Amino acid sequence: MEPLNPITSPHPYLHRSLDDGVLTLTLADPVARCGLDVETIEALDQTVWQVASDPRVRLIVLQGLAGHFGRGLNDPAFTEMHRQDPQRVRQALYSLGRWRDGQLRTLPQPVLAVIEGPCAGVFITLVQACDIALCSDDAQFILKESDAHWLAQEPALQAGADCLAARALTYHHLLGQPISGQQAERMGLVTFSHPAEQLRHELMQLLVSLREKDALALQFTKETLAHAPSMSWDAAVNFTAAKFAEIKSRQAAGTSSRAAAVSDFLAGKNKPGLGG
Amino acid sequence: MLRIDDSTPGVRLIGLDRAAKRNAIGVEMTLALEAALLELRHREDIQAVVFYGIGGHFSAGMDLKDFFDSSTRGPQELRRARAATEHWRCHLLRELPQRIFTAVEGYCLGGALPILQASDVVLAHAQSKLGMPEINFAFVPGGQIVKSVALMTSQRALSYLALTGKLISAEQAQRWGLVSEVVSTDPTALALTLASQWVQRSAALQAE
Hints:
The structure holds two protein chains of two kinds. Chain A contains 13 helices and nine strands. By secondary structure, chain A is an alpha/beta fold. Chain A has two domains: about 15-210, 2-enoyl-CoA Hydratase, Chain A, domain 1; about 215-265. A six-stranded mixed sheet of chain A has the order 1-2-3-4-6-9, sandwiched between helices. The termini of chain A are far apart. The model of chain A is unreliable at about 155-165 (pLDDT under 50). In chain B, the strands form two sheets. Chain B has a six-stranded mixed sheet. A three-stranded mixed sheet of chain B has the order 5-7-8. By secondary structure, chain B is of the alpha/beta class. Helices cover about 45% and strands about 20% of the residues of chain B. In chain B, strand 1 (about 1-5) and strand 2 (about 10-15) form a beta hairpin.
């Protein structure tokens, strides 16, 4: 019998599969149409912590089941859990805040969200926490009052009002209109919106491209993306010097794909990204 | 390394002139850029600058061979060149009193992107390609480059460019805020025209 693999162990509403370095997390509560309850948030949180130190995982894909990305928090389940164990609810909401405020951004692996169908309430903040987000043109991003009620109870999540109060989001909220995939792309909520029939093809192409990258370089790039924009120019220079020294040292300790890539480039054998 | 032309009144044209290397910024070019910008900041007779690339490309970014793994430069020379790069890229360029117009053709990659961010106007030819290819070399984009791109575009676009290393079209670059206008004619001629018009308008406004 194979040892229990915590990353892919069964969970009723969070399907986890690891295939060729890609960990796919599928939110799969059909009754709540992929709504999040406390247990699923806890399972997601546990997975995020495990993934951070698992070298088998090169990329992470977050998706919903059967045409629903997520309907937001499962309000009846949250209400019931809050009656039984309010501390547990607060902890779950705090975890959501941590993902959004940087935990997903500072994971070593790129995190991709794939949005089909409704993406409501707290799922919008989840999408914002991912590095790259692809959606179908017919996806619908929906602000949700009941989620706002829960989010307001957790100080770490109140800061989320900053992103939810962006001008375009407020407009859609006040008019009660969902945001389409193409509108979400224009607003910067997602990276690209594609026709529904092309979405999986585009995802596969992106995964193939990302899987070829050096894992350490991806990790350091994510760290640079997370920190450099808020630094002064001189601090960014200093940060870069430290990162360059560290990546050279760590890549030198193993088989260096950078050395091979640079060597091929200089020899004219390969021009990565330059059409070669 | 640089082709400088002051023949249009009030406008300085600065051409990146290393066509054989797609205008990759090597040691000599970075020192030349620092010197040119140091001189330019005191020129009250010049009100606008036009950056462009010679030979069909704006710039392929920093020269890997000159600056990184295979560099044959001595440590002191490299240290001087790196200091010059950060000087013009992080400070001189941003503190220029002149308006900056930049014309992009061909590749505009990595270390060249801070020039776009410091520019007031960026015209890009429809066939040009922009991006951050460092990850394709198992390398990391510099924090200064990431910061520059973050000042032009969204977190979404920045993450995509840096993590995938994919190049984007001029049209996509315009949608993401890296480019002001996409043109189908010579962007350098157009940038020069716009810069000259701005100089004349600025003079007229001062005369009022």
